[in-house]
Structure formats: C-alpha cells, structure tokens
Amino acid sequence: MTRPRRGRIFTLVALVLAAVNLRLAVTSVGPVLTEIRDGLHMSATAAGLLTSVPVFCFASVGLLAPRAARRLGAAPVIAGGLALLTVGLAARPFAPGSALFVLFSAVALAGIALVNVLLPSIVKDHFPDQVGSVTGLYTVALNLGATTAAAATVPVTGGFGDWRLGLACWAVAALVALPPWLLMARERPATPGQSTDAAPIRVSRQPIAWALAVYFGMQSTSAYVIIGWLPQIYRDAGLSAELAGVLFATTSLLGVPLGMALSALAGRVRAQSGIAVGLGLFGVAGYFGLWMDPASAPWVCAILLGIVNTAFPLVLTMIALRGRTPAVVVRLSAFAQGVGYLIAIPGPILIGALHDATDGWKAPLAVMMGLMVPQIIAGFFAGRDRQI
C-alpha cells in the first residue's frame, strides 16, 4: 500500500466521521423535547426558536467559512467546527435555563455550518476523480448519524435515567471525529481553502451559482416540510401513529442506498440536468398522491418522497463538480448553502400556516407541488456541464 493511498484512506475516514455528526445536534432534540421543556421550564416560543436556529446558523455562519478557510486552510477550520460542535453538545444539556440551552445549541450548529460548507472542497481536492461516489458515501454517513440520534436518544435517556445525559452523550461522537482533522490541520499543505488566484472569482455573479442556490433552497424546503409535517399528514388521514412513523422512517432510510447510488451516477456523467428533473417529477407525483388521499397509497407516496429527498446528495455532488478548483468549490458551497438555507426558512412555516388557515392539507400540498416547478427548473440549469 503506497503512502498516497494510505493518505486517501485516512482522509476518507475523516470525512465519514465528520459527516456522521452533521445532523446529530438537530435530530437528537426532537425525541426528548418534552423533557427538555419540562426540565428548563421552556416556553413554546423558546421551543419554536430552537427549531428555527439550525437553518439560521447554516445560512449565516456557512457564509463565513470561505474567508476562514482562505486564512487558515480548510482542515483547520473543519477541526475548529468539530471542536465547537463538541463543546456545544456537551454544554447545552447542563444549561441552567432556556436562553443558554439555545445559545449552546447555536454554538454546536455554528460548528456544523463550517463543516457543511467545507467538506465538498475536501472531496474535490483529495478525490477529484471520485467526487460522486465519495460525496454519496459521506451523505450516507450523515443520514445514518441523523437516524441513529433520532432513534436512540430516547432509549439512551431511559438507560441513564436523565435526559441531560442522554443528550450530552452525542458529544462523544463529535469528539471521536476531531483527532483526524487535528492531524490533517497540522500538516498544513496547500489546502482547498487557500486560493492562489490573483483575482478570486465572485460566485454571486455566476448564473450557475444562483441555479445551485435555488436548487439547494427548494430541495431543503421539501425536505424540511417532509420532516416536519409528513407524519401529521398521514395521521390526519386516519393512519395510526405507529404506521405514520414507519412511513416517515421509510422516506429517511431510502436516502441511504439511493443517495449513494445517485451520487455515484451523477459523478460519472457530464451533466446532471436529467437526474435533477427526474427527481422533481418524482416529487410532483409524491405530493400529488398525498393531495389526492394520503391513506389510499401511503407506501407509494412515502417511496416517491424518499426518492425526491435524494436531491440533497445530488446538489452536494453538483457543487463539487461545478467548481474548477477546490478553492472555488469552497466559495460556491458557501454561497449555494447559505443562500439556499435562507430560501428554505419560510417553507415549513408557510405550510403550517396554510394548514391552520384552511384546516386541511389540500392547499399546503398544492403549494408543494407548485414548488417542485422552480426546483426542476433550477436543477436543469445547475446540472448543465459548466464550471466556474
């Protein structure tokens, strides 16, 4: 085994360990939110703020990542992000009040935002000929981490007999991911974040960047609506809570094998427009099925929506492919994710408000079908064989 190969395997392990942590801070809270609110005397307003903090952090802090990476290098910034995540996850369960709990959550999410933006550039730099397959691998790790935290937080809390310990234990996963990145940070090579370009490209002036940002925002909107409302849609249609949970889990678990396969395919073709359009059509069909009657073919709708959720690994792959150099990928990733998350903020709120206003799901689901149109259009342009 040659040294370069050992180095690539080490980097791959570091990528996977980092990716496992990218949703733990979010998905570990929901299952024990009742206990958190009771323990901290948290108001409904504070709980609502807690659910909106992730998107705001991903949008705002992510935009700062390119400047930090240019000064320090991508690996040191990722290591710093994982350190912030570790501190935030370890400290927030022991916060004496709601304000500090939200603050430490923001610290953890700020760390995630930095890592979110920079991982595509690491893939581009270390695996330029395997962008699709490596991106697929780390998005699978991300999904598995998120699912594990959602499923295991309650049993772990029961085992400890304390929700604080059940929540704090996830800091261990972040701590385990940190050492490889500290070692990579010490090497300080010519890193992806440090550009030697005389005149750095302003990605905000590039049509491809805007197409990627809109596509990222639209797929995020769909994903957050599915996460936030799909179980309730099924339950309101008369399905049991248990079946609604299984159907929702199906949409999430489908992303593991499909995301891996789709990213690998996307990395092998010159243009990904057809894939993006196809996923959008699956989304239209899934939301249309729910609009007609969620209870008539619930498994079909769950599978269709699970397929459209693989737009997330697709857009990460496209971000890495659309940048000509790792330095450009850093800026492109920050722009697409930052602007994209801003676009996604109103979606779940609007859907909830429409449901309350109409006392049903027809109007919200019609809106979701309509939002597939800009997703399809943006995906078509983002997937064309162009590079910045």
UniProtKB/TrEMBL annotation:
Domain Major facilitator superfamily (MFS) profile: 11-387
Main localization of the protein described in the UniProt heading: membrane
Source domain of life: Bacteria
Any GO molecular function: transmembrane transporter activity
Transmembrane region(s): 41-65, 72-91, 97-119, 131-151, 163-183, 208-231, 243-266, 273-291, 297-321, 328-351, 363-383
One Pfam family, short name: MFS_1
Places the protein is found: Cell membrane
InterPro entries attached to this UniProt entry: MFS, MFS_Cyanate_Porter, MFS_dom, MFS_trans_sf
UniProt topology in membrane: Multi-pass membrane protein
GO CC field: plasma membrane
Secretion signal, residue range per the UniProt entry: none
Record keywords, A-Z: Membrane, Transmembrane, Transmembrane helix
SUPFAM superfamilies per UniProt: MFS general substrate transporter
PANTHER family: 2-NITROIMIDAZOLE TRANSPORTER, PTHR23523
UniProt-recorded name of the protein: MFS transporter
Phylogenetic placement of the source organism: Bacteria, Bacillati, Actinomycetota, Actinomycetes, Micromonosporales
